[in-house]
């Protein structure tokens, strides 16, 4: 029987379609429901044309749309409550999406979502903005769905909501209801007049039932950036109307790929492997080429895209991405570094700092591998936990699939990471060495010498050091009311006065952070910068004793962490023990870049840098011989936030 030409043509077309689909499947294969986009990857070092790869489409993926977490867990943040001003404690259960256990402070560094106003959020979830995202209507959302508003005082609302102070109270129905609940009939007065005539400035909206009022019942409330609300960093993402639905690619700091390197999965190996040194996995603390020097080195072996055999080898061939299920590395920073013993699964940050991508279970029998996301908690500008909150299921791959790697660094580290003890069989939550299901006590002791335990950081008792510095300053500076002489440093770019017991300069980043957060604080700082000498009342209004201690302990922890990684010119070894204390005191006195054991002094010419360090050390020894030197698991722990300022020297 003769087959018609039309049928032959149709069969050829069908065959081409089938071949095209099969070919595409070998380019990138994954399981999951996350929206993706096709990206063409140039391959200049090979004889192949540009290759297509599937990547997450961050313009259609939000925190609320990511998969639910696979394991439950909790963190006890109460030891840090006094320092942070809020309770960092968190509980997460299987199935919860990231918007339900992450707070604004956790994602501030990575996504800067606090820069949004409710109005901006609504625009980014509008149907015309993205058809995949559920839209929100602020007129239909009650104030009770925005718990952060209940924590705001009337005085603060009058300061941050545009024109609200000049609006009559009867046009601000929640405020009118709040005042009437206290027997105050002032409907015809503006909010500013009410605040002047009545002592109601500290009343909070949360004192009434807010479920009766919509967000639009407070004029211009939707125009206020979230970061202007008191306590914004402690608000769950899910408690900000619509924020959990904003695409990650539409955040103020949009999520995107970091770098452009895509590699091919050549082989997958299980945990029977050991001693692998050509790695591209690790952490932002240890770097991303940490070797696996022990056992349980499950990994992906990666190749460049040429796929032309051994004759076309390049430096990218044979790279190893170690499984984070079986190996963990050092992670975290600042006040929260000690959480989970400072450990996190090894992996990479190809999409920025919001989460870590981790290879989980390479399966040699099926030539497949699962990946997962791990999140972290952060105390705003005070540090972050390691990436240990997970796993959140991500892409699954087969051998010959393409996987996005991001930037590769040639920098190598000899610091190995440790096996987790995980096996292929499910384990009880109490034995999970990655810490994702156990209840974590961030105050527990760690083998990591840089972890904070109670009031101790790297073996230095911060409370004793606090007292030692206070004693080393001049007699007047032992008083929290002390104000130093006006001075300028860095060729006039930093001008101000030393404030309080520890004589922090008014331009110190910790001081600026604490003062600027208060109403009128920035204006006060500007005045001091111009030479104004604060009164006792002003000092205690803008830089009270608790803030002075908080700034000191944060700054000391930061200086300790940085100094112990530097070389002591007197010994040729890293700063440790008493020399570490001396050098940290010198930095407090003369600045981070002051000369080790230098002869320079402050504007008063009382002590040299070297003498200051020795005097502070002597006071510290005395303090450690008293009850003050005993280490306890106290909530009065502060951060080691790393400032980006060029120089924060005291300049006194």
UniProtKB/TrEMBL annotation:
Keywords assigned: Signal
Signal peptide: 1-25
Domain of life assignment: Bacteria
Protein name, per record: M23 family peptidase
Species classification: Bacteria, Bacillati, Cyanobacteriota, Cyanophyceae, Nostocales
